[in-house]
Amino acid sequence: MFWRYCKNGTSMTSAISTTEQIRGVLIQFVSILLSCFLLFYIDSDTEQVFDLFEFGNLLALAIYFLPTFMISMVLFAFLAKRYGVRNGLIRFLVIGIPLSFTLIITMFLCMK
């Protein structure tokens, strides 16, 4: 693996940075997915875990997940550039998911 980076002229620091960024995106993906399922599980209509995989909940998952993931990618890119990948990821988890859910829920409330 090291030799491949030396051949292509890519330094190991940029390869490590790219690996950290990919890992950060995967952590974002999983954390947002789990947060959406937790939000749906808290719902009063959900009585069992299998209720999370009904058509209506999967449609709501797409409605909540896609905007949250897009907002988080922009926020993570900004925070990672400013604070580094690891600190940016921690700040994203604390700020990004609640902020995104709040924006989406507010948008739905304004539509009524």
Describe it.
- The protein is mainly α and 112 residues long.
- It has one domain (9-111).
- It has four helices and no strands.
- Helix 2 (12-42) packs parallel to helix 4 and helix 3 packs across helix 4 (85-111).
- The N and C termini lie far apart (55 Å).
- The chain crosses the membrane at residues 21-42, 62-80, 92-109.
- Keywords: Membrane, Transmembrane, Transmembrane helix.
Give the tags.
single chain, membrane, mainly alpha, 112 residues, globular, 4 helices, disordered N terminus, transmembrane, transmembrane helix
Summarize the structure.
It is built from 4 helices and no strands. The N and C termini lie far apart (55 Å). It is an all-alpha fold.
Q: What is the mean pLDDT?
A: 79
Shape: globular
DSSP strand count: 0
Structural class per helix/strand content?
mainly alpha
Radius of gyration: 18 Å
Q: List the helices and strands in order.
A: HHHH
Amino- and carboxy-terminal Cα gap: 55 Å
Q: What is the count of distinct domains?
A: 1
Indicate the percent of residues in helices. Answer: over 70%
Which regions have little confidence, pLDDT < 50, spanning 5+ residues? 1-6, 10-16
**Percent of residues in beta strands?**
under 5%
Largest sheet, described in full? none
Number of helices: 4
